[in-house]
Write a structure and sequence with these properties.
By secondary structure, the chain is of the alpha+beta class. Helix 5 links the parallel strand 3 and strand 4. Helix 1 packs antiparallel against helix 2 and helix 1 runs antiparallel to helix 5. The longest helix is centred in the last third of the chain and has 19 residues. It is globular, with a radius of gyration of 16 Å. The termini are far apart. It binds iron/sulfur cluster. The site of iron/sulfur cluster (SF4) has 13 residues, from helix 2 and helix 7.
């Protein structure tokens, strides 16, 4: 089973997904990730149910009434954020919990609602198969310049090893 982070990275960059999944752990030190962790800890001081682990498989920020809530710094990766939320909604549905999602972006001060459709469920299943295939590869998917490479935790790793294409 893929984790929420893997689903997110799958949408952001398949190379990043591979590197992260193989334990090449630049992420831990990266200041943006640290910033995200601090945000998480401060985000929901009034809610008791924070960081819920479902079946020892994936963690949710908050599960509240009909909603799963996630908080993000900015909406730069909105598509990946949405897909990750759909994945959570799908996994919850498989466990008999029918929820909607809310993603709050602190920088833009906005909240997006996410509703799971049958079409989304199919996309998630396809993504999961694709992730499995990617992780079977002996080496990472080749470097492809993306708009957010310069801000990625693996930037130096990618560009020092393979050069800027
Ligand atoms: S630097 Fe670019 S190519 Fe390398 S992992 Fe990050 S997003 Fe992917």
């Amino acid at each position: 089973m893929a984790s929420g982070v893997q689903i997110h990275y799958y949408k952001v960059c398949k190379r990043k997904l591979w590197l992260f999944s193989k334990g090449i752990g630049m992420e831990e030190e990266h200041e943006r990730v640290i910033e995200g962790k601090i945000l998480h800890e401060r985000a929901y001081p009034r809610l008791n149910e924070r960081e819920i682990l479902i079946d020892n498989e994936f963690k949710l920020d908050v599960l509240e009434d009909e909603y799963v809530r996630e908080i993000k710094v900015s909406s730069k990766m909105a598509e990946a954020d949405r897909f990750q939320m759909l994945y959570y909604l799908y996994e919850l549905k498989k466990r008999g919990m029918y929820k909607k999602g809310l993603i709050s972006y602190t920088k833009e001060r906005k909240t997006e609602e996410v509703i799971l459709t049958e079409e989304d469920e199919q996309k998630i299943e396809e993504a999961r198969k694709d992730i499995y295939q990617i992780l079977q590869r002996p080496s990472p998917p080749s470097l492809k310049r993306l708009p957010y490479c310069s801000k990625c935790a693996y930037y130096e790793f990618c560009y020092a090893l393979e050069g800027d294409e």
